[in-house]
Design goal:
The protein is α+β, with helices and mostly antiparallel strands. The two termini are 50 Å apart. Among the domains are: 215-234 and 299-522, Rossmann fold; 648-742, no CATH class. Strands 7, 8, 9, 10, 11, 12, 13, 16, 17, 18, 19 and 23 form a twelve-stranded mixed beta sheet that branches.
Length: 742
């Protein structure tokens, strides 16, 4: 996507803030530490200077008359991690953003000042707790640990001495909204706020919570995803909506046991791997996930065979859809993110929205084509602009010929305050300060309009005609499964297409960012032009050769599966339920991945699966250790196959288990263990061991995997993705504390 608006809080920066400093015993690092501390002092001094400059905005007085005069003529914008833009706006000059949206009437006139005031303040930190059944105990423990922060009755002040509003519970998404913004929390000297920042980083790494803007939680919330659904996130990165969909899919039962799947797509492979990192915190729930890289407007339909004739929907021309739920969060101009990206104030132009309008419409059309009849899709942007929002929705309904309806989803999240969608808007450009309005499309194509600007316009940017044809039937209204009313009738006025049921989220209503979302239902196959003739088909396919996918998953060799099953004593039940779902991405079978049935059936076994460019999927069960020359069982993979393992099981005493846990990544010589333990382990070949506690696991999070190496030693290895370094440390620390309590 063009803007990473669904993750509002600088994920990488937060991880860095939670990392541990280097050891003082390292002389080679002492100079680096000194430089880092000096840089922090300079930043703190600069922030203090900026805070002093901002006091005029807060009603405080300065001592210098000249400075006071200058500050009264300016508005200070929030601090961000991007220091290269101007943080001040002149009071006596309207920005292009203000001029444009005043004309659009996106809020009532009496609300305009309050709307701007909120846009110029930083966005508060928000997060939601994990709703998966497997994480309920961890969520409870995390909330108990955070009681000091989230249920604090004492008055708390920030570094400027201002009172911080208490946290607000968001019941509809099981989330919280804090009374402090990201930058203030990250660099605060208040001990309680520093503890809160560390708690957020730790729990975010372990998948217990996800930091996500309130507005971006809306699409997945109103889709009402269930465990059996096939879900497509067309423009997924950085992935917070994808994690929300995965959690809904695994809300009941064990991780990865859902019969449905989530397909997360992004055009950029590098952003796909960032998405993978976000989703990896959810553990074995990723067995239900497939990450792909395609242009969203050309996303393949796996129901279409690679070479055979296409089977069209009954009553339509296009192939049958594949998905029950689709999140269509399209690339946008992103002006709804002004509170966390204040540089937009100086960069914003209405032409940004015009440039993206056609792409947004094409992606929405593709989403509608991929949707099953009876399925639901959310179209959303983080923009206030009706050219990107209502204009796209109105044209989509028109082009789908009655197959798509707008659903009034206000009863899905009744606690969420919103404004209705617009029925009229204006198409305006601002070139070199000149505001030009084009009442009709024909006005934009006059000879006086520059040729480059002409090409940016499309007829679909203007509101639909307000008067319906005299012979047109009246718009129909009926009750829908997911909403109060469903409006249909694309030939009628914009009011009859239900644009007023679109959701416009504006900052001053509930202290959030700007967002647009609409729930759409596919009620019939999409009609198309008359069936093409044989000559048309021949012309369409002439000279076209399909490119092979860049990434694919293939079955693990039967020989390797039998070898692993023999080593770990995996019986017939394993062969029936797990072995058929083991895949690898390399011919050498460097790793063995478990992919759940929902993903396997849709992305690997379907008739058009070869079209999909798969980047990543599933849970890694084994990976080949070149140094130790055996297949190493992973910690997450062990949880999936543990019920079937009958061999290579070992019990350690409490002290022995603690000695291994305290030496993560280092070998512990077997000579330090009891004779009975040494004898039991040496009877086995080097490889992974499934280790439990002697006398029973006593509700501890056991067993775990410990490797027996060729050096006659035990070694604990806990794999993690970059950015999730805290996850294994937190789990080991929790296990050590539980062992101490025995």
């Amino acid at each position: 996507m063009e803007t990473s608006h669904d993750d509002g809080y600088g994920y990488d920066d937060d991880l860095a803030a939670g990392s541990h400093p280097p050891s003082r015993s390292s002389r080679s690092r002492s100079r680096s530490k000194t430089l880092v501390r000096a840089a922090k002092r300079r930043r703190a001094a600069a922030c203090a200077h900026q805070d002093a400059d901002a006091r005029v905005h807060d009603g405080e007085h300065t001592t210098t008359t000249t400075t006071t005069t200058n500050e009264k003529n300016s508005i200070v914008l929030p601090r961000t991690s991007a220091p290269w833009f101007s943080r001040t706006l002149r009071v006596d000059e309207e920005t292009p953003f203000e001029v444009y949206y005043k004309r659009q009437h996106i809020v009532r006139e009496e609300e305009w000042a309050e709307f701007l005031r909120y846009l110029r303040t930083p966005l508060p930190v928000t997060f939601r707790m994990n709703r998966m059944a497997s994480r309920r105990e961890e969520v409870k423990q995390a909330l108990d640990a955070s009681r000091t922060f989230l249920q604090n009755a004492r008055e708390t002040r920030d570094d400027r001495g201002r009172v911080i509003p208490p946290p607000t519970r968001l019941a509809w998404c099981d989330g919280w909204q804090l009374g402090v913004d990201k930058m203030s929390l990250k660099f605060s000297r208040n001990p309680m706020l520093r503890d809160l920042q560390r708690w957020l980083v730790k729990t975010n790494n372990t998948g217990v919570l996800t930091r996500q803007a309130v507005d971006s939680m809306v699409p997945a919330a109103i889709l009402q995803i269930e465990p059996h659904h096939r879900v497509l996130d067309l423009c997924a990165s950085p992935g917070s909506k994808t994690t929300q969909a995965l959690e809904a899919l695994n809300a009941n039962g064990a991780e990865g046991s859902a019969s449905g799947c989530v397909i997360a797509n992004d055009i950029n492979p590098m952003r796909c791997y960032f998405l993978v990192r976000r989703c990896s915190a959810l553990g074995n729930a990723t067995a239900n996930l497939m990450v792909t890289t395609h242009q969203a407007q050309w996303y393949p339909n796996v129901n279409v065979p690679v070479s055979d004739e296409v089977n069209a929907e009954s009553g339509g021309r296009y192939p049958e859809g594949s998905y029950d739920r689709i999140i269509c969060d399209v690339p946008c101009s992103g002006d709804g993110t002004l509170r966390k990206n204040p540089q937009i104030w100086s960069e914003w132009k209405p032409e940004f929205a015009m440039t993206l309008h056609k792409l947004q419409l094409h992606i929405a059309q593709r989403g509608a084509a991929l949707l099953k009849v009876g399925g639901y899709m959310v179209y959303s942007t983080c923009s206030f602009n009706p050219v990107e929002n209502e204009a796209v929705v109105a044209e989509l309904i028109k082009r789908c010929g009655g197959a798509i309806e707008i659903v009034d989803a206000s009863d899905r999240v009744p606690e969420l305050l919103r404004r209705p969608g617009l029925s009229t808007w204006r198409v305006v450009t601002m070139v070199e300060g000149d505001v030009v309005e084009y009442p009709k499309y024909e006005d934009s194509q006059k000879p006086s309009v520059p040729i480059g600007l002409k090409r940016k316009f499309a007829k679909s940017m203007w509101p639909q005609e307000q008067e319906a044809p005299k012979d047109a039937p009246p718009p129909q209204s009926r009750v829908g499964v997911l909403g109060k009313r469903i409006m249909r009738g694309p030939s009628a006025a914009s009011k009859s297409t239900g644009l007023e049921h679109c959701m416009r989220l504006v900052p001053h209503l509930q202290d959030m960012g700007g967002f647009f979302a609409v729930l759409l239902k596919k009620v019939a196959p999409i009609p198309g032009p008359k069936t093409a003739t044989n000559n048309d088909k021949a012309d369409a396919h002439s000279g076209y050769s399909r490119t092979a996918p860049k990434h694919s998953y293939s079955k693990v060799s039967i020989k390797l599966v039998k070898s692993l099953a023999k080593d770990f004593g995996l019986g017939e039940d394993f062969s029936k339920s797990i072995a058929k779902n083991l895949f690898s991405r390399s011919e050498q079978d460097k790793s063995v991945v478990y992919i759940a049935d929902g993903v396997k059936d849709h992305c690997i076994d379907s008739i058009g699966a070869e079209r999909m460019k798969c980047v990543w999927s599933g849970v890694k069960i084994w990976e080949k250790s070149e140094r130790d020359n055996f297949y190493m069982l992973t910690q997450d993979g062990m949880q999936i196959i543990e019920p079937f393992i009958t061999k290579r099981r070992v019990e350690l005493s409490r002290s022995e288990l603690k000695s291994v846990l305290n030496t993560l990544g280092r070998e512990v010589p077997l000579e330090t263990f009891a004779p009975a333990t040494r004898h039991a382990i040496r009877a086995l070949a080097p490889g992974s061991l499934v280790v439990s506690l002697k006398g029973g696991n006593r509700n501890l999070k056991l067993p775990i995997v410990i490797n027996y190496t060729d050096n006659d030693a035990l070694k604990l290895i806990w794999r993690y993705r970059k950015g999730l370094e805290q996850a294994p440390k937190v789990k080991i620390k929790s296990l050590l504390m539980a062992l101490d309590g025995i």
